[in-house]
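Work Package 4 report. The design task specified in the project plan requires that, given a folded chain encoded as structure tokens, an amino acid be chosen for each position. We show below one input record used in the internal validation round.
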């Protein structure tokens, strides 16, 4: 009898300790996960979470960081539905990005309009920009390698204060610069080298780069005359993870003055414009025409807010020209002129989070650039996928 009672007590104590150990194990597993603040339930969207990267892009600062050591093995979470939302406040704040866009500085001083270009260099320093995009026709150019090399080197020397200040200088070729790709890559090498991530045969002339939350694509149009590498462009935009996207090249996509533009090959131009639209670009910067011309390219859906804009900024010092009607092959689009100005000057682009402002600054006197009457502002919606909290 006593033996049975002792055995019963031992079994009860063993069960108690096993339950206690199980409870402690469950407690430590729960402690390994950060607690979540109260979140509003959002109805599930059709698209599931594609990857952990999609979740990470939400950058929700409200989520606390776990202070407990990771468990030996991470438990498998049940699948959660996801929702595509446009976040503004929830995205981790990014420092403002400022840059200048200008093109067409060819002139009489060893192929360069050195006085105007020098003033724009000083303006870029005064504006405290992070980088400068140059939309081509740096120089008059030549089919003779030595002349082209001398002119491009001189252009680079005028830009030297920007390089010295740590300001990125990103040119693309214009038709006057296209005499020798080898000379171009020679001049823009070493500390002056451009990103070497372009497609085969276009290293150093076609490229992309990121700065903060900005993604920029620079497009050569002379390795393939009047067209860009569409496959490469589509791949770049598909892989991009930054919310603010710009593209720039020399030739306008829609004729404003010069007839030799991308609509020389309308099918390729149409595909180019559709790729930009589907890839999140809002502005295509161009040069070639020595003026300022801002057009909204109406896609005909009745919503001007989703139209892309073509902004020609060719006021870098080359002889000024006048604009004309948009009388080229416009395909299914209708260019609508927003603003035009026949002046030297540059575009100042300011990106503050998801808010973008482009200001045309015209030269009103020597070393004096003032707002010239056109300011484009818009906000980017950043699609982010976040998991829903299970009920």
């Amino acid at each position: 009898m006593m033996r049975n009672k002792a055995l019963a007590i031992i079994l009860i104590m063993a069960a108690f300790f096993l339950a206690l150990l199980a409870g402690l194990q469950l407690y430590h597993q729960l402690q390994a996960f950060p607690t979540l603040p109260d979140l509003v339930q959002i109805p599930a969207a059709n698209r599931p979470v594609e990857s952990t990267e999609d979740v990470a892009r939400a950058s929700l600062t409200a989520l606390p960081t776990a202070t407990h050591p990771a468990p030996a093995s991470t438990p498998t979470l049940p699948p959660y539905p996801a929702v595509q939302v446009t976040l503004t406040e929830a995205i981790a704040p990014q420092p403002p990005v400022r840059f200048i866009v200008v093109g067409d500085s060819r002139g009489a001083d060893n192929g360069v309009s050195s006085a105007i270009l020098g003033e724009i260099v000083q303006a870029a320093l005064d504006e405290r920009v992070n980088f400068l995009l140059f939309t081509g026709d740096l120089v008059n150019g030549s089919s003779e390698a030595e002349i082209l090399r001398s002119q491009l080197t001189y252009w680079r020397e005028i830009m030297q204060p920007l390089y010295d200040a740590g300001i990125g200088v990103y040119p693309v070729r214009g038709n006057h610069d296209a005499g020798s790709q080898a000379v171009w890559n020679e001049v823009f090498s070493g500390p002056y080298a451009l990103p070497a991530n372009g497609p085969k045969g276009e290293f150093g002339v076609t490229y992309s780069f990121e700065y903060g939350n900005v993604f920029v694509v620079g497009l050569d149009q002379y390795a393939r005359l009047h067209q860009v590498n569409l496959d490469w462009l589509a791949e770049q935009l598909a892989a991009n993870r930054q919310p603010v996207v710009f593209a720039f090249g020399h030739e306008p996509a829609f004729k404003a003055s010069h007839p030799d533009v991308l609509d020389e090959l309308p099918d390729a131009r149409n595909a180019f414009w559709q790729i930009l639209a589907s890839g999140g670009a809002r502005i295509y910067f161009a040069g070639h025409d020595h003026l300022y011309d801002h057009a909204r390219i109406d896609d005909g859906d009745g919503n001007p807010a989703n139209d892309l804009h073509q902004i020609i900024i060719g006021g870098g010092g080359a002889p000024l020209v006048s604009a004309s009607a948009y009388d080229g092959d416009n395909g299914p689009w209708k260019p609508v002129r927003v603003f035009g100005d026949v002046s030297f000057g540059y575009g100042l682009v300011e990106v503050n989070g998801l808010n973008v402002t482009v200001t045309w600054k015209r030269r009103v006197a020597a070393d004096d650039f003032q707002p010239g009457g056109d300011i484009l502002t818009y906000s980017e919606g950043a699609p982010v996928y976040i998991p829903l909290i299970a009920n």
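The chain has a mean pLDDT of 83. Validation will be extended to a larger panel in the next phase.
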